[in-house]
Write a structure and sequence with these properties.
Elements (H helix, E strand, L loop, with lengths): L4 H15 L8 E7 L2 E8 L12 H17 L5 E12 L6 E11 L4 E10 L4 E15 L10
Antiparallel strand pairs: 1-2, 2-4, 3-6, 4-5, 5-6
Length: about 150
């Protein structure tokens, strides 16, 4: 049985995320358990490290932005959102191991959306958080090759 409605949209967004070429560099899995919530599971490896032996800031930004973005995009079915602003707070160095980026929709329903996200290590420690502003683009989700139901 094929998913319908919001569930079908969420599965299609998960497929879109998996199809993004950037995720060949950041092996990760997106799940959208409910509208306005997104989780990205990933593994930090030494390949993500800067010269001082911890994860580079690009890792923090990419995962926080994606989690907040998909939490917000889970609420609209017609258009792809674009990040217009993102603020980061990095509280601890991130070393090798499993991490989850938890994203949540905060505000907005029409043109501009606000979402936040946090990175949580396997031992439950928050190492970063971020808040983003996202706006509707002119890009129809249905026009993107990766956007399809499982």
């Amino acid at each position: 049985m094929q998913p319908e409605g919001a569930e079908a949209h969420h599965r299609a967004l998960e497929s879109l995320y998996a199809a993004a070429p950037i995720n060949r560099l950041f092996a990760s899995t997106l799940s959208i358990p409910e509208p306005g919530v997104a989780r990205i599971s990933f593994e930090v490896t030494r390949d993500h490290y800067h010269a001082a032996g911890a994860a580079h800031g690009t890792t923090y930004f990419k995962m926080l932005d994606d989690a907040a973005f998909y939490a917000c995009n889970s609420l609209i079915t017609d258009r792809f959102l674009l990040t217009t602003q993102f603020n980061l707070l990095l509280t601890r160095p991130l070393s090798a191991g499993p991490v989850v980026a938890e994203g949540r929709w905060v505000n907005g329903q029409r043109r501009v959306f606000v979402g936040d996200a946090r990175l949580i290590t396997a031992d439950g420690e928050e190492v970063a958080r971020g808040t983003g502003t996202f706006m509707r683009s002119r890009i129809a989700l249905a026009s993107l090759p990766g956007y399809r139901s499982a």
